[in-house]
Amino acid sequence: MSSSTAANQVRASHILIKHQGSRRKASWKDPEGRVISATTRDSAVSQLKLLRDDIVSGKAKFDEVASRYSDCSSAKRGGDLGPFGRGQMQKPFEDATYNLKVGEISDIVDTDSGVHIIMRTG
């Protein structure tokens, strides 16, 4: 990877909560999609807000919460997605990540995958 490519990349971790409106209603935690199919967007947002509050207040660590609650397979890496550049993630996710400073945690971000909170790590 050239240094100019690396300079345009960010690194982030996230926590994804899927819901009825998610494009893929299954995850590593819910392979049949039973819980996801019964989860409303509002319920997913409420759960994510509580998790975010615990992280921001210092009651919980982002990577531990991601490992336990995220519907993304990145949960096994504490939510770490590794480095990525523009055009590699869904637009709302990409925009939110690029707008964060390293160490900052986003508010709720909606994508076709579900609802997320994102922490920029690099």
Short description:
The protein is α+β, with helices and mostly antiparallel strands and 122 residues long. It has helices spanning 3-7, 34-37, 41-57, 62-69, 91-99, and strands at 10-17, 80-84, 109-111, 114-120.
Low-confidence stretches: none
Give the strand order of the largest sheet, numbering strands 1, 2, ... along the chain: 2-1-4-3
Helix-strand pattern: HEHHHEHEE
Q: What kind of sheet is the major sheet? A: 4 strands, antiparallel
What this model shows, in words?
Prolyl cis/trans isomerase with specificity for phospho-Ser-Pro bonds. It holds the Pfam family Rotamase. It catalyses: [protein]-peptidylproline (omega=180) = [protein]-peptidylproline (omega=0). The chain has helices at about 5, 35, 40-55, 60-70, 90-100; strands at about 10-15, 80-85, 110, 115-120. Strands 2-1-4-3 form a four-stranded antiparallel beta sheet, sandwiched between helices. The mean pLDDT is about 95. A hairpin with a 2-residue loop joins β3 (about 110) and β4 (about 115-120). The protein is globular. The longest helix has 17 residues, at about 40-55. The protein has about 120 residues and is of the alpha+beta class.
